Amino acid sequence: MWTGRRVVLGVSGGIACYKSCTLARRLTEAGAQVDVILTRGAAEFVRPLTFEALTGRPALGSLWEPGGALSHIRLGQQADLVLVAPATAHLIARMAQGLADDLLTTLLLASTAPVLLAPAMNDEMFAHLQTRANLERLRARGVSVVGPDVGALAEGPSERPGRMSEPETILAHAARAVRGRGPFSGRRVVVTAGPTRESIDPVRVVTNRSSGKMGYRVAEAAWERGADVVLVSGPVALPAPVGVRLRRVETTRELEDAVREELPETDVLVMAAAPADFRPSDPSDRKRARVDGALAIPMEPTDDILGATRGLRKQGSITVGFALETGDALAKGRAKLERKDLDLIVVNDALEPGAGFEVDTNRVALLGRDGAARILPLQTKREVAEAILDAVELSLGR
Ligand code: CTP
Questions:
Q1: Pairwise CA distance, residues 121 & 104, whole Å
Q2: What is the pLDDT of residue 112?
Q3: Strands, DSSP E only, in 2-127?
Q4: pLDDT of residue 329
Q5: Given this structure, which CATH class describes domain 6-179?
Q6: Cα gap 374→392, rounded to integer Å
Q7: What pLDDT was estimated at residue 63?
Q8: Which residues pair with 238 in a beta bridge?
Q9: Which residue, by CA, sits nearest to atom 24 of ligand 1?
């Protein structure tokens, strides 16, 4: 998403400056044009040369350098985002007052780009009523804020917020600050992901090979687009995406209960989970002993969650289902779209290389209610997630 975007990275003087180098590097690698502006204090911690090497562009500090303030201020006017990381208590106070006594604060006043601050300071300074009031004031003016987190500070361990958020978290918020004002903004999106797990006995389970990757990528992308995202996840080995509310479930019944609870307030449901369709009808509460010969475990069907919760959907909401097939995928997908009353179904064939469970890529077709199929090339799951959300966005706009 960063390709061709312009980011001004404002760096103010705190020890967290060392993490700003990672931010500059990651944004540049992702394709953004990054212009770093340092305050006087920041230049004491990290030399401009470091940022120049990382971004391939001059790092600026003074209003009075050759080139003049005006051309530097233009950077702010052309930016897609002004990210200030770290934002010290002093910088936040200057911003809240509207001061323009150095290049960074001057640029901030002259820019209409979205602004994201990543505060970093001593925990006592962050807790100070004045700092809180300053941040409130900036928030009320539309400035976004990420963190600070709880964790070790330069002066020692702390159990209160003060430490700057990690670069990964800041980058996710930066993407949302840039992209989050479109049709998904303020919408409630529920994504289900991963397998479910049904007990045979306290030790053994019936489950499937779903990794959860597809659903996690959809949740991440929807949050970036400004949605309020709930991710209902079966047992998977993936870190929680930044910003989303994660609800962990284990069985198909728990997944259904969570969907039932969320659905009445949901604008978009993306049902990427692979719930177990059968569960042992009489799970044993003791570990079953080994038997000689064949073992038969009686199973009963679980509910079809999409079908069973159909009546709870909010009016005008959009429901997206998935169909993982092994052959004849389009025809089977079309039948599922109708049977489950979906607006969109994402169809893929598990037998195709690069598609299906456990891999990072997918080759899918999107089928809409009108019967038209859009066959997408082999893409990363993140790219597939974006394509799904593009299709949803068209219907949201209506
Ligand atoms: N799904 C569901 N409840 C289930 C099983 C699946 O809501 N108990 C959802 C999936 O999350 C997916 C869609 O239904 O979005 C299709 O899943 P799939 O397993 O392909 O469909 P089934 O109805 O189980 O059909 P079949 O197994 O007969 O192919």
A1: 18
A2: 93
A3: 6-11, 33-38, 81-87, 115-119
A4: 87
A5: alpha beta
A6: 13
A7: 67
A8: none
A9: 277
Residue 243 has what DSSP assignment? T
- Supply the pLDDT for residue 363: 86
Residues 6+ apart with CB under 8 A from 218: 191, 193, 270, 272, 385, 388, 389
CATH number belonging to the domain at 188-284+291-396, selected among 3.20.20.480, 3.40.50.10300, 3.40.50.300, 3.80.10.10: 3.40.50.10300
Token readout for 219 is: 């949740």
Q: Residue 357: which of 233, 240, 272, 254 has the closest Cα? A: 272
So what's the pLDDT on residue 357? 65
- CA 183 to ligand 1 center in whole angstroms: 28
pLDDT at 157: 84
Q: What separation in Å is there between the alpha carbon of 206 and the centre of ligand 1?
A: 16
- As a whole-number percent, the residues of the chain with pLDDT over 70 amount to 95
Confirm whether 134 is a catalytic residue.
Answer: no
Domain ranges of the chain: 6-179, 188-284+291-396
As for ligand 1, residues whose beta carbon falls within 6 Å of it are: 252, 271, 273, 275, 277, 302, 304-306, 321-324, 336, 340
Residue 351 is predicted with a pLDDT of: 65
Q: What is the model's pTM? A: 0.92
Residue 66 confidence (pLDDT): 66
Candidates 194, 225, 231, 232; CA nearest to 211 is 194
Distance CA 197, CA 40 (A): 56
User: Among residues 122, 134, 208, 362, which one is catalytic?
Assistant: 208
Give the pLDDT confidence score for residue 354 in this predicted structure: 67
User: How many angstroms does the Cα of residue 323 sit away from the middle of ligand 1?
Assistant: 7
- What residue ranges of the chain have pLDDT lower than 70? 63-64, 66-71, 351, 353-358, 397-398
Distance CA 336, CA 325 (A): 11
Rounded distance, CA 171 to CA 389, Å?
20
- pLDDT at position 397: 65
**Chain-centre distance for alpha carbon 132:** 26
Classify the C-alpha dihedral 303-341-383-183 as positive or negative. negative
> In the 8-state DSSP scheme, what is residue 362?
E
Q: Which atom of ligand 1 is nearest to the CA of 339?
A: 23
pLDDT tens figures, 297-312: 999 999 999 999 999 9
Count Cβ atoms below 10 Å from residue 339 Cβ, excluding itself: 12
